[in-house]
Amino acid sequence: MRLSLVHLYPALLNLYGDRGNIITLKQRCAWRGIELDVIEIGLGQDFPVSEPDLVFMGGDQDREQEIVIDDLRRRHGDRLRHSIQNGTPVLAVCGSYQLLQEYYKPAAGRELHGLGIIPAHTVHPGPGVPRCVGNIVIRWPLGTVVGFENHGGRTFLDAGVQPLGTVASGFGNNGDDGTEGARVHNLFGTYIHGSLLPKNPAFADLLLSLALARRYAGATLQPLDDTLERRAHDAAVSRAR
Amino acid sequence: MRLRRAAAVNAARLAAAVSRASGRGGTALPGLVATAMDPDIIAALASQLPVGSVIVAGTNGKTTTSRMLAAIVTSAGMKPVRNESGSNLARGLAASLVRRAGPTGNLARADRAVGLFETDEAALPAVIRSVRPRILVLLNLFRDQLDRYGEVATIAGLWKGALQELTGATIVANADDPLVAHLVQTTEAPHIFFGIQSAPESLSGLPHAADVKACPNCGAPIDFSVTFVGHLGHYICRTCGFSRPAPQVAAEDVRLNGVDGSLFAITDSDERISVALPLPGLYNVYNATAAAAAACALGIRLCEVRAGLENVTPAFGRMERLEIDGRHVYLALAKNPTGLNEVLRTIESVEQPLFLLPMLNDNIADGRDVSWIWDADVEMLRGRVASATFSGTRAADMALRFKYAGVTAPAGSALWSIEPDPEHALRSALSATPRGERLFVLPTYTALLQMRGVLTRCGLARPYWEE
Fold first, then answer.
1. Maximum Cα–Cα distance for chain A, whole Å?
2. In a mutagenesis test of the B interface, which of A31, A45, A137, A150 is the best target, namely the one with the most B β-carbons within 10 Å?
3. Of chain B residues 346-375, which have a CB less than 8 A from chain A?
4. DSSP percent split of chain B into helix, strand, coil, nearest 5
5. Best interface-test mutation with A: which of B179, B213, B371 has the largest number of A CBs within 10 A?
6. What number is the ipTM of this complex?
7. Average pLDDT value over all residues in chain A
């Protein structure tokens, strides 16, 4: 079996160990005899002609975010929106989670219009307000997700938008309403890095099984020995308290 | 004023004595006492140094470069005053000055005393204001502790402001770091660039952990024809023409010799010296060239630099070697992606299978965020590791990094374990390492301090504050 993953702007959106997510997806495929082709799409490059099975976007610095947004809207906006409506699994971490929302209002400078795929917006409360930094644990339907968050912007979901989970420890979307991230079809937006997927193998396998089921009807993922992954997960959860 | 300073000095010296007697080293407490009682104490004492002061700043290499410079100035007949214990904040600096002050609150008169102060990236503006250096060495800017320092661009912005505060100082800067070179070229201060001209171990293209991909002048993608360490190399922006300035002090003909050191030449406009450096890795070639350039700025000739560099010993935990039960144990600090990559490149050049003890902590001084380990190229160790003992508060995270890098235990091996406690980890790693072999301990900053504590308790190492 063979799956393809589009990694958007790997050079520019890679602040917080985002590569760990790609490495994890690739290895968890390899250990099951599935080949995962990673297609890196940089600035000025077009989306591949054939529909990818997965899309990943990482986090960034504010400067890169401005460079990326125009290219993203012009080259990939329509294709990405179409793929997400069709149920392609997409993982967007931190800066790219913000880019897929309606708009981002920075502490200074002009408002940045996002792709508007996630009905939500982000506001930076100003340079004097502390960033949301630290270990974070959330509860979601598959148990807990643990990682690290580091963001200045506060995200507010529109009414009716499904969050990724509820905050057990940490800040999440805005430190206020107890929500973290967002899920729209099979698009998962989140502030959690650390990296996210290595210590949360259930999350990695959810993305892979969604991708697999769309490409190969009836195919299922073989279980893996996740003893070490669980140990790292539990150690991180205990550090978050 | 004079009375307050004398009182501050005496209280700090008392604090140092009490702290030392209780076996806690105490590199920070005396400084804390001194600065609390006299906020201007650093400025007052630093102004009494006859040769003036050198400040060394940068993400990686501060401690080793200061140590090299200390060796050079010593062999040139000067007396270095250093904040040598790695407590590189303002209070560590105050402590180092107070230690040389007498009961009147003034520095003991010493001919040719020179201040050598390494400083935290974020503390640089404050330290420049109080020390008023004669020379400022800017080594590099890498991603480190995003949760504390913010992004590399944030630190660059902070430094830009700090450079405006320099009066009459010479900047010694790394020509091979585009961010540093650009910062320096936008100031009026006189400057000397250093860099590496040629080395066989260079990489073509940027490693994954490269922190600078855009031109600091115009924001367009920047072209590297060669990189030596992280994003340090030879570069040009095809859009605005910004490019690497020609270094006045340069290293060339570099030959690396595994974990034992390297051979290279350093040139300036007048001289060329050959150096057999006893510290390994290209990163130490950068540190040595920086120290040589700073020495030149102090008026020391290159021919005097050589002796200092060839006698330098590793700084605390920087590929420091100890003999334990017939094993050669190396302590090599690895605290950010570029630092870990360079240590891995160096030990990977060892012919034999590797015995490792990686230690990953997530305390505040390490950075609470451990995601940086995913940006290091652990994959280069595939098929090379005979045993690994993972330790620290986030031992399992590091073990996971190795697992996903495809660096796994040899088939049927039990030599792969997780021991969060440093003392247990050391015992377990030693028993997994046959006599006569090398064991590489790769700790983050607070893990290094813990390991040093374990070694001191076992009588295997001197406390670091006695160095």
1. 53
2. A150
3. 362, 368-375
4. 40, 25, 40
5. B371
6. 0.96
7. 94
Instruction: Please indicate if any CB of chain B lies within 8 Å of the CB of A199.
Output: yes
Residue A200 is encoded by which pair of tokens? 């949360």
Q: Which residues of chain B have pLDDT under 70?
A: 1, 21-28, 84-88, 147-149, 201-209, 411-414, 462-467
**B399 contacts chain A (CB < 8 A):** yes
The full set of domain ranges for chain B reads 2-310, 318-466
Find the CB nearest B147 among A150, A195, A239: A150
- So what's the pLDDT on residue B467? 47
Cβ-Cβ contacts under 8 Å for B281 (sequence gap 6 or more) = B256, B262, B319, B342, B343, B345, B346
The total of other beta-carbon atoms located within 10 Å of residue A78's CB is 12
Any chain A CB within 8 A of the CB of B226?
A: no
pLDDT tens sequence across A30-42: 999 999 999 999 8
Under a CB-based contact definition with an 8 Å cutoff, are residues B347 and B440 in contact?
Answer: yes
What's A111's domain CATH number? Answer: 3.40.50.880
A61 and chain B in contact, CB less than 8 A: yes
Our answer to whether residue A193 is catalytic in this structure is yes
**CATH number belonging to the domain at B2-310, selected among 3.40.1190.10, 2.40.50.140, 1.10.1200.10, 1.10.3720.10:** 3.40.1190.10
What phi and psi values does residue A168 have, to the nearest 5 degrees?
Answer: -100, -30
CB contact at 8 A, B116 and B69: yes
B236 CB within 8 Å of a chain A CB: no
Amino acid at A187: L
Query: What is the rounded CA–CA span in Å between residue A15 and residue A60?
Result: 5
Q: Are A180 and A174 in contact (CB under 8 A)?
A: no
Q: What is the pLDDT of residue B351?
A: 80
For chain A, say whether B219 makes contact (Cβ under 8 Å). yes
- Domain B318-466, classified CATH 3.90.190.20, yes or no: yes
Domain count, chain A: 1
Instruction: Supply the pLDDT for residue A197.
Output: 98
Query: Of the listed A29, A76, A94, A132, which one is catalytic?
Result: A94
pLDDT tens for residues B45-99? 899 999 999 999 999 999 999 999 999 999 999 999 998 655 557 778 888 888 8
> Out of A16, A18, A64, whose CB is closest to B146?
A16
**Looking at chain A from residue 220 to 239, which residues have their Cβ under 8 Å from any Cβ of chain B?**
228-229, 231-232, 235-236, 239
Q: What are B186-204's pLDDT values in tens digits?
A: 998 999 999 999 887 666 6
Cβ neighbours, 10 Å, residue B259: 20
Q: Which residue of A has its CA nearest to B368?
A: A134
- Domain range enclosing A121: 2-239
pLDDT per residue as tens digits for the range B118-175:
998 888 998 999 999 999 999 999 888 776 667 788 888 899 999 998 989 999 999 9
* A60 Cα to chain B: minimum distance (Å): 9
Q: What is the pLDDT of residues A87-107, one digit of tens each?
A: 999 999 999 999 999 999 988
Q: What secondary structure letter does DSSP report for B243?
A: B
Start-to-end Cα distance in chain B:
33
Rounded to an integer, what distance in angstroms lies between the CA atom of residue A63 and that of residue A43? 14
pLDDT attached to residue B376: 94
